[in-house]
Protein backbone atom coordinates (compact mmCIF):
# COMPACT_ATOMS: atom_id res chain seq x y z
CA UNK A 1 0.00 0.00 0.00
CA UNK A 2 1.17 3.48 -0.77
CA UNK A 3 -0.06 6.97 -1.65
CA UNK A 4 0.88 9.36 -4.44
CA UNK A 5 0.13 12.99 -5.16
CA UNK A 6 -0.45 15.04 -8.29
CA UNK A 7 3.14 15.52 -9.56
CA UNK A 8 2.81 19.24 -10.27
CA UNK A 9 1.28 19.95 -6.86
CA UNK A 10 3.96 17.79 -5.25
CA UNK A 11 6.74 19.71 -7.02
CA UNK A 12 5.24 23.10 -6.07
CA UNK A 13 4.90 22.00 -2.45
CA UNK A 14 8.45 20.67 -2.32
CA UNK A 15 9.87 23.83 -3.94
CA UNK A 16 8.35 26.04 -1.24
CA UNK A 17 9.11 23.56 1.54
CA UNK A 18 12.80 23.79 0.63
CA UNK A 19 12.68 27.58 0.57
CA UNK A 20 10.85 27.79 3.90
CA UNK A 21 13.13 25.34 5.66
CA UNK A 22 16.67 26.62 5.23
CA UNK A 23 18.10 23.50 6.87
CA UNK A 24 17.04 21.51 3.80
CA UNK A 25 18.13 24.08 1.22
CA UNK A 26 20.86 22.85 -1.14
CA UNK A 27 24.07 24.91 -0.86
CA UNK A 28 23.85 25.76 -4.56
CA UNK A 29 20.70 27.80 -3.95
CA UNK A 30 21.94 31.38 -3.60
CA UNK A 31 20.19 34.12 -1.65
CA UNK A 32 19.09 35.69 -4.95
CA UNK A 33 17.57 32.41 -6.02
CA UNK A 34 15.84 32.04 -2.66
CA UNK A 35 14.00 35.32 -3.32
CA UNK A 36 12.46 34.08 -6.57
CA UNK A 37 9.02 32.58 -6.60
CA UNK A 38 8.20 29.64 -8.82
CA UNK A 39 6.36 31.83 -11.36
CA UNK A 40 9.56 33.86 -11.90
CA UNK A 41 11.90 30.93 -11.72
CA UNK A 42 10.23 28.27 -13.91
CA UNK A 43 10.43 30.12 -17.26
CA UNK A 44 14.18 30.59 -16.68
CA UNK A 45 14.75 26.86 -17.11
CA UNK A 46 16.95 26.64 -14.01
CA UNK A 47 17.16 23.02 -12.82
CA UNK A 48 15.95 24.01 -9.35
CA UNK A 49 12.77 25.40 -10.90
CA UNK A 50 11.65 22.43 -12.97
CA UNK A 51 12.79 18.90 -13.66
CA UNK A 52 14.30 18.71 -17.16
CA UNK A 53 14.78 15.64 -19.35
CA UNK A 54 18.09 14.03 -18.47
CA UNK A 55 18.28 15.62 -15.00
CA UNK A 56 18.95 13.30 -12.08
CA UNK A 57 16.29 13.77 -9.42
CA UNK A 58 13.60 11.94 -7.49
CA UNK A 59 10.12 12.12 -8.91
CA UNK A 60 7.28 9.91 -7.67
CA UNK A 61 7.90 7.20 -10.21
CA UNK A 62 11.47 6.95 -8.89
CA UNK A 63 10.17 5.39 -5.68
CA UNK A 64 8.29 2.71 -7.62
CA UNK A 65 10.93 2.11 -10.31
CA UNK A 66 13.62 0.63 -8.09
CA UNK A 67 17.29 1.25 -7.32
CA UNK A 68 18.71 1.31 -10.81
CA UNK A 69 20.38 4.69 -11.49
CA UNK A 70 18.19 5.03 -14.60
CA UNK A 71 15.18 5.30 -12.27
CA UNK A 72 16.30 8.82 -11.29
CA UNK A 73 16.67 10.18 -14.82
CA UNK A 74 13.88 12.60 -15.74
CA UNK A 75 12.16 11.63 -18.97
CA UNK A 76 13.37 8.02 -18.97
CA UNK A 77 10.65 5.84 -20.52
CA UNK A 78 12.33 2.69 -19.19
CA UNK A 79 11.97 4.04 -15.63
CA UNK A 80 8.30 4.74 -16.26
CA UNK A 81 7.75 1.20 -17.55
CA UNK A 82 9.56 -0.33 -14.55
CA UNK A 83 7.51 1.79 -12.14
CA UNK A 84 4.27 0.72 -13.83
CA UNK A 85 5.29 -2.93 -13.64
CA UNK A 86 6.25 -2.61 -9.97
CA UNK A 87 2.88 -1.04 -9.12
CA UNK A 88 1.39 -4.49 -9.59
CA UNK A 89 3.32 -5.59 -6.47
CA UNK A 90 1.19 -3.19 -4.39
CA UNK A 91 -2.23 -4.31 -3.26
CA UNK A 92 -3.46 -0.71 -3.48
CA UNK A 93 -2.05 2.75 -4.10
CA UNK A 94 -4.14 5.74 -3.14
CA UNK A 95 -4.06 9.30 -4.37
CA UNK A 96 -3.92 12.33 -2.11
CA UNK A 97 -6.45 14.19 -4.24
CA UNK A 98 -9.15 11.57 -3.56
CA UNK A 99 -8.79 10.41 0.02
CA UNK A 100 -12.33 8.93 0.26
CA UNK A 101 -11.84 6.62 -2.75
CA UNK A 102 -8.38 5.68 -1.52
CA UNK A 103 -9.73 4.76 1.92
CA UNK A 104 -12.62 2.81 0.36
CA UNK A 105 -10.13 0.65 -1.56
CA UNK A 106 -7.77 0.35 1.42
CA UNK A 107 -10.66 -0.81 3.61
CA UNK A 108 -11.51 -3.61 1.19
CA UNK A 109 -7.97 -4.90 0.82
CA UNK A 110 -6.72 -4.16 4.34
CA UNK A 111 -9.82 -4.31 6.57
CA UNK A 112 -7.85 -4.84 9.77
CA UNK A 113 -6.33 -1.38 9.41
CA UNK A 114 -9.12 0.54 7.68
CA UNK A 115 -12.41 -1.03 8.80
CA UNK A 116 -13.57 2.03 10.74
CA UNK A 117 -12.40 4.73 8.36
CA UNK A 118 -16.03 5.80 7.75
CA UNK A 119 -16.27 6.80 11.41
CA UNK A 120 -13.79 9.57 10.67
CA UNK A 121 -15.49 12.46 8.95
CA UNK A 122 -12.83 13.95 6.68
CA UNK A 123 -14.75 17.19 6.29
CA UNK A 124 -15.38 17.69 10.01
CA UNK A 125 -12.17 19.58 10.57
CA UNK A 126 -10.76 16.96 12.93
CA UNK A 127 -8.32 15.79 10.27
CA UNK A 128 -6.15 18.41 8.63
CA UNK A 129 -5.47 17.28 5.08
CA UNK A 130 -3.40 20.39 4.39
CA UNK A 131 -1.97 21.91 7.54
CA UNK A 132 -0.64 25.15 6.04
CA UNK A 133 -2.22 25.84 2.66
CA UNK A 134 -0.58 28.75 0.91
CA UNK A 135 1.59 29.70 3.85
CA UNK A 136 4.74 29.84 1.76
CA UNK A 137 3.49 29.39 -1.79
CA UNK A 138 2.04 32.27 -3.76
CA UNK A 139 -0.60 31.60 -6.36
CA UNK A 140 0.93 29.55 -9.17
CA UNK A 141 0.09 30.72 -12.68
CA UNK A 142 -1.40 28.48 -15.35
CA UNK A 143 1.72 29.15 -17.45
CA UNK A 144 3.99 27.84 -14.69
CA UNK A 145 1.76 24.80 -14.22
CA UNK A 146 1.85 24.12 -17.98
CA UNK A 147 5.67 24.35 -18.03
CA UNK A 148 5.90 21.94 -15.11
CA UNK A 149 3.41 19.53 -16.68
CA UNK A 150 5.38 19.45 -19.93
CA UNK A 151 8.64 18.81 -18.09
CA UNK A 152 7.18 16.01 -15.94
CA UNK A 153 5.37 13.99 -18.61
CA UNK A 154 6.47 10.57 -17.38
CA UNK A 155 5.64 11.32 -13.75
CA UNK A 156 2.21 12.61 -14.79
CA UNK A 157 1.63 9.53 -16.95
CA UNK A 158 2.60 7.38 -13.97
CA UNK A 159 0.23 9.30 -11.66
CA UNK A 160 -2.62 8.92 -14.19
CA UNK A 161 -1.88 5.19 -14.42
CA UNK A 162 -2.17 4.83 -10.64
CA UNK A 163 -5.28 7.01 -10.56
CA UNK A 164 -7.01 4.88 -13.20
CA UNK A 165 -5.99 1.70 -11.38
CA UNK A 166 -7.44 3.03 -8.12
CA UNK A 167 -10.75 3.90 -9.78
CA UNK A 168 -10.93 0.47 -11.48
CA UNK A 169 -10.36 -1.16 -8.09
CA UNK A 170 -13.07 0.98 -6.49
CA UNK A 171 -15.52 0.13 -9.28
CA UNK A 172 -14.80 -3.61 -8.93
CA UNK A 173 -15.18 -3.46 -5.16
CA UNK A 174 -18.50 -1.61 -5.50
CA UNK A 175 -19.77 -4.29 -7.89
CA UNK A 176 -18.66 -7.08 -5.52
CA UNK A 177 -20.32 -5.42 -2.52
CA UNK A 178 -23.60 -5.07 -4.47
CA UNK A 179 -23.49 -8.77 -5.32
CA UNK A 180 -23.24 -9.88 -1.68
Radius of gyration: 18 Å
Going by CATH, what is the homologous superfamily? P-loop containing nucleotide triphosphate hydrolases
Architecture (CATH level 2) name? 3-Layer(aba) Sandwich
Give the biggest sheet. 2 strands, parallel
Q: Strand content of the residues, in percent?
A: under 5%
Domain module count: 1
CATH topology title: Rossmann fold
Largest sheet strand order: 1-2
N/C terminus separation:
25 Å
Count every helix, treating DSSP H or I runs of 4 or more residues as helices.
9
What does this structure look like?
Keywords: Glycoprotein, Golgi apparatus, Membrane, Signal-anchor, Transferase, Transmembrane, Transmembrane helix. It is a single-pass type II membrane protein. InterPro entries: Heparan_SO4_2-O-STrfase, P-loop_NTPase, Sulfotransferase. Belongs to the sulfotransferase 3 family. The protein has a single domain, classed as P-loop containing nucleotide triphosphate hydrolases (Rossmann fold), CATH 3.40.50. Helix content is 51%, strand content 3%. It is built from nine helices and two strands; from the N terminus they run E-H-H-H-H-H-E-H-H-H-H. The protein is globular and about 60 Å long. The two termini are 25 Å apart. 23% of the residues are buried.
Task: Break the fold down into its secondary structure elements and pairings.
Elements lengths: L1 E3 L2 H14 L10 H5 L2 H4 L18 H6 L11 H11 L5 E3 L3 H11 L1 H4 L27 H10 L1 H27 L1
Amino acid sequence: MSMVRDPVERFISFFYFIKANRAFTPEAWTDNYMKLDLNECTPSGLPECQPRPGDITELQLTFFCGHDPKCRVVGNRWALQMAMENVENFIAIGIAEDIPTSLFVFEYYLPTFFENYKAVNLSSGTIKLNQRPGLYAPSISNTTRAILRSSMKEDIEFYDFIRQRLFRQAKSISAIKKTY
